[in-house]
Amino acid sequence: MNLATAPGPAARAPACGAGSGGAGPLRSGDLVLDEERWTVHRAGTPVDLSPTEFRLLACLLRHQGTVVSRAQLLHTVWGWDYTGQPQVVETYVSYLRRKLGRLGPPLIYTCRGAGYVLRGPETPLTETTLTETPLTETTLTEDLNTGPVRSAR
């Protein structure tokens, strides 16, 4: 993240209501997000993210392997008082996919009708992963059908 565009200290509260608590950076495969330094690296390469992209990625990393609904993302990343279009989530997820996808395999997947899930390349998607969510039928696909389509019923 560019220091000139980084938010002030008051806006640097950890995303998704959980503090880093000194536990260190959030990781998934070769993706590393450091909330204290306000940096993101993928495959050792710095990734320049806007403050909103950073909060969204932090939220997905905190809940990796779990489907996070669009409503949950709107409330935790944009706040309860956000009154704009809910499609902003899809827009920012596509920004993240584009920026992170240049440096490695996909990490963020869409669960149609349910939300998004971040999983590292070393974490295969299983039916167990999907059935741990409150869904009974989920179709998981990458944005723009760039990768495999997986379905669990």
The coarse silhouette is globular
Structural class: alpha+beta
Give the strand order, joined by hyphens, for the main sheet. Answer: 1-2-3-4
CATH architecture field? Orthogonal Bundle
- Uncertain runs with pLDDT below 50, 5 residues or more? 1-15, 17-21, 127-153
What is the CATH topology descriptor?
Answer: Arc Repressor Mutant, subunit A
Kindly report the average pLDDT value.
76
Number of strands: 8
As a percent range, the share of strand residues is 15-25%
User: Roughly what percent helix?
Assistant: 25-40%
What's the alpha carbon Rg, rounded to whole Å? 15 Å
What summary fits the major beta sheet?
Answer: 4 strands, antiparallel
**CATH-defined superfamily:** Winged helix-like DNA-binding domain superfamily/Winged helix DNA-binding domain
CATH class: Mainly Alpha
Helix and strand pattern: EEEEHHHEEHEE
The tally of domains stands at 1
N-to-C span? 40 Å
| Total of DSSP H or I helical runs spanning 4+ residues | 4
